[in-house]
Amino acid sequence: MGRTRYEYSFIEIQRPALELPEVSCVTTFGTPRWYDPRRRSRNLELCSYLEITRRLPRVSELHWATAEAGLFFLLRREIRDRFVHTAAAADAHDPCRWLPASVKTMAVTIKAPNWSDHQFDHHRRLPNLSRPYGHDEVSAAFRKMSVGLKKFRFKGIADHALFWPSPSEKHIEEPHWPNLTHLRVDLSYQSPSGKWYFKCQDADDPRNHPWSDVPVSGDALEFRPPGYGTEQDKEEALEYLASWLDHVPSFRYRDGRGVFQPTFRTWPNDKVMIPLLESFARAIGQMPSLRSAALLFDDGDLDSYTFVSYASPGYETTATRNAQLRDQKLFKTVPRLVISSCKWRMSKSLKGLFREVGSKCHNQATVVRYLPVSLDYSDDDDDSD
User: Which domain of life is it from (predicted)?
Assistant: First the structure.
């Protein structure tokens, strides 16, 4: 059965956090750095990670690693909802409302579903996990957890609410990260809204099917995976899965290493990308101690690539080595933002948000540069609204 053996099997601690013993000698909690949530083992649910963490009053470093359930979306939503409920369930007077105050470093990995053998399949339709909120509640919960940290790293499926409150949230408060020095976010190409962060640049590309940009219909959320119901439930779920996959076009090519799926989503989808970048810009403007911040995208089994990289004066960006060499001209003097986007360009208003970060935190506007097209440091004059 390989790596799919425990794809729908998760460990959940049933006892409430207050019934768990408090352990004051633990300073680091979570999975080892080498742990891969896709391997042949059961994953701990996010809500259980949080329950245990709240009983560790001296913990300073967290490493949470788990995986999203696969094609049966009802289980994915239930697991995410349990985490959101656990995060918000603490009493208002509880000093550990989100995380213990001792936590300074947090790394979260939530492996996104990978539905092909080698590379992420760009033809798949995605579920809308943001309904009925209008934003991703899991992203919002992690944003609230991060405000007291010094270092925060997140890898998984998230939306703009990870950085800044969505207008659809209740009791909106402007966030502030007074101590955060390092921020790295590796996002899946999938967004929680059922939309892709990237699209095919050429509408006439034969690999491009516009219907794959339409979220999966609501009836897909009615089925649990085998093992979570009766035998009849299992048969209905498998029948539905087979009928759904039959409508997915197959573009599998073969090279010297074997069969692989074509990747054609290379152009940012403005409808979901722009709100994400706007929130990212507003967030780093509220981080006065920030040294570096990076927003990367992870295409399944492929390596993540840096999409947006920001650095304060005197610190390196996480952009390519070539950019870092040219970056030495301004290394000690000004804040920089490097965007790896081929020929895609931000609007003038979005670029202005990033430039304001430097003005607010360092009294000097952020220098914005594009890779690989713009490698020099002369001001770009191709801004557009």
Answer: Eukaryota
Q: Decide: 169 and 161 in contact? Cβ < 8 Å.
A: yes
Closest Cα to residue 57, out of 93, 27, 90, 17?
A: 27
| Three-class SS state of 205 | coil
Most confident of 28-42, 106-120, 344-358: 344-358
- Summarised one tens digit per residue, pLDDT across range 266-290 is 889 999 999 999 999 999 999 999 9
Answer for the pair 274, 308: CB distance below 8 angstroms, yes or no. no
Calpha distance 241→50 (Å, rounded): 32
β pairing state of 198-200 and 265-268: antiparallel
Integer-rounded Cα Rg, in Å, for the chain is: 21
Longest dimension (CA), the chain: 67
Q: How far apart (Å, rounded) are the C-alpha atoms in residues 220 and 230?
A: 18
Give exposure, 317-340, as e/b (b: 16+ Cβ within 10 Å): bbbbeebbebbeeebeebbbbbbb
Distance between CA atoms of 208 and 58, rounded to whole angstroms? 51
Q: Residue 184: helix, strand or coil by DSSP?
A: strand
The answer to whether 137 and 84 have CB atoms below 8 angstroms apart is yes
CB within 8 Å of 119: residues ≥ 6 apart = 260, 261, 263, 299, 300, 301, 302
> Could you give the CA distance from residue 177 to residue 166 in angstroms, rounded to a whole number?
17
The per-residue pLDDT for range 9-48, each reduced to its tens digit, is 888 888 777 788 889 999 999 987 656 655 557 889 999 9
Pairing of strands 265-268, 258-260: unpaired
Sign of CA dihedral 149, 150, 156, 157: positive
| Per-residue pLDDT tens digits for 162-208 | 999 988 777 778 899 999 999 999 998 889 998 999 888 887 777 77
